[in-house]
Design brief:
The chain is α/β, with parallel strands linked by helices. It folds into two domains: about 1-170, UDP N-Acetylglucosamine Acyltransferase, domain 1, CATH 2.160.10.10; about 175-240, no CATH class. It has helices spanning about 1-15, 20-30, 30-45, 50-65, 175-185, 200-230, 260, and strands at about 65-70, 75, 80, 85-90, 95, 100, 105, 120, 125, 130-135, 135-140, 145, 150, 160, 165-170.
């Protein structure tokens, strides 16, 4: 019990920089209180003590502002940040390490007593105000942007935004590893590949890294062909010496400095 509690607290510390101590989390976080009460209500629900389960769920709603049906199935290390206005339906299924923010709805779109609420894979993050509706599946480690409305399945690792929700990026693990390796090789770390929402600059940098990776592969093939022909060459690309590059900082109404001033000529 204490081991699982410590594991849960550590997972909250990783996801919420405002968490200062175990005392603060256990006594002042409504998402934690709602989860504890749901565990109790869900047990009553499985014991077919349905009225008692709904009563505990209703009490949790009054105290925390979070409504979780006692029939919902929730995995380990589930965290609701802020929490006010969160609604989770009866047939919803939530995996491990899932994070929801305030105003999220996991709702149904049918009146039949069947599977009518979403299934969330491990590591899913759903932003504030998002609505995930119907018996759809959100793949592992997917991201749903704030105020999005999702009514279709989302593949693993994808990011979804808009009304209706549309996939704006789908991270390929192999491609991501190649980009990271190329970024390290040229001495560039902050190249924009993050699990958060993509932006045009990050996309442009990723495209350049992909191009550099292909150029690097061509250079290796050319070097191998020349060596087999008896010609010794060194086509290895050196690392970028970023420490000797001067940053050109332009602020306010100051005009941009000439390139000759930004990068001093060699003597």
């Amino acid at each position: 019990m204490f081991r699982s509690m410590r594991e849960y607290l550590q997972s909250i510390y990783r996801r919420d920089p405002a968490a200062r101590s175990a005392l603060v989390v256990l006594t002042l976080y409504p998402g934690v209180h709602a989860l504890v009460l749901h565990r109790m209500a869900h047990r009553f629900w499985r014991w077919r003590l349905r009225w008692l389960a709904r009563w505990v769920s209703q009490m949790s709603r009054w105290v925390t502002g979070i409504e979780i049906h006692p029939g919902a199935r929730i995995g380990r290390r589930f965290f609701i940040d802020h929490g006010m206005g969160v609604v989770i339906g009866e047939t919803a299924e939530i995996g491990d390490d899932v994070t929801l923010y305030h105003g999220v709805t996991l709702g149904g779109t049918a009146w039949e007593q069947t599977k009518r609420h979403p299934t969330l894979g491990n590591g899913v993050v759903i932003g504030a105000g998002a609505k995930v509706l119907g018996p759809i599946t959100i793949g592992e480690n997917a991201r749903v942007g704030s105020n999005s409305v999702v009514v279709k399945d989302v593949p693993a690792g994808a990011t979804v935004v808009g009304i209706p929700g549309r996939v704006v990026t789908h991270r390929d693990p192999v491609l991501s590893q190649k980009r990271e390796a190329m970024a390290r090789r040229i001495g560039f770390d902050a190249y924009g590949q993050t699990p958060e929402m993509p932006d045009p600059v990050a996309h442009a940098v990723d495209c350049m890294l992909d191009h550099l990776h292909k150029v690097d592969e061509k250079m290796r093939l050319l070097s191998g062909a020349l060596e087999r022909a008896g010609i010794q060459v060194n086509l290895e690309m050196p690392a970028l010496d970023i420490e000797n590059l001067e940053e050109n900082q332009v602020s306010g109404n100051q005009s941009a400095q000439p390139i000759s001033k930004v990068i001093p000529p060699k003597e």
